[in-house]
Amino acid sequence: MLLTIFSVTSCMFLIPSQGIDKEYLKQVSTVHYGITGNPKLPIKTDGYYRLAIPDKDMVPGYERVNVFYDSGSFASYLINTQGQDCDMIDMEKAIKAAKPLTTIGTYCGVYRISNDTIYANVYTKSFYIRRLYFLIVDSNTITAFKEDAPLQVYDGKMAVWDDSVRRYCFAKAVNIPKPNDHFLRKKKWMWDKEGDWLQYIEK
């Protein structure tokens, strides 16, 4: 049986690379794409959110950060910022510098905001899903308060991988890569409206 490392925050775990029930995946996906983004987001999109207190288990210089795009896309990147100006990180350079640590450094997905909460669904390319929940403190600060994996059920209960509160602070960056989420956007069930999906496909 093949195993894949899937890490969205800083924690790592192994999941089997076996077939997934796509109908069940549709049911547990709680966030979908729309044709346009929201220009009045209460969070920032010209950089990334990083842990306020570095993860003690992470290799020095490396960290996992979250990027929210105006388009509604979400990405979790593993970066290495050693040798860079911490006040203005070059994201593409930092992502490339993290490659020696792992070949599985980026996860993509989609998010939506309701009141003061961010709901994000993030996927591997094998369509394993993690659902993330963030509370918006202000535009510079968000706190992650829950992360679950509905495709992993034990004794009839869904796996909740992390329900501790972790604070993330915003850091501005340059050369933020475009989200590599075409493998998600081409799926009709990933859209709120079929017409929006058709418009995307026909581009």
Measured on Cα atoms, how large is the radius of gyration?
17 Å
Extract low-pLDDT stretches: 1-7, 9-18
Share of helix, binned: 10-25%
In this structure, how is the largest beta sheet organized? 10 strands, mixed
What is the tally of helical segments? 4
Order of helices and strands: EEHEEEEHEEEEEEHH
Number of domains: 1
Structure summary, number of beta strands: 12
Termini separation (Å)?
39 Å
Q: Which outline best applies?
A: globular
- The secondary-structure class comes to mainly beta
Rounded mean pLDDT is 81
Strand percentage lies at 35-45%
Can you describe this structure?
This protein is mainly beta and 203 residues long. It has one domain. 13% of the residues lie in helices and 42% in strands. The chain is built from four helices and twelve strands; from the N terminus they run ββαββββαββββββαα. The strands form two sheets. Strands 3, 4, 5, 6, 7, 8, 9, 10, 11 and 12 form a ten-stranded mixed beta sheet that branches. A two-stranded antiparallel sheet has the order 1-2. It starts with a strand and ends with a helix.
Features:
ten-stranded mixed sheet; single chain; mainly beta; 203 residues; globular; 4 helices
SSE map:
Blueprint (H helix, E strand, L loop, with lengths): L2 E4 L6 E4 L5 H7 L18 E5 L10 E7 L4 E8 L8 E2 H7 L8 E9 L2 E7 L5 E10 L2 E14 L2 E6 L3 E9 L7 H4 L8 H8 L2
Parallel strand pairs: 6-12
Antiparallel strand pairs: 1-2, 3-12, 4-5, 5-7, 7-8, 8-9, 9-10, 10-11, 10-12
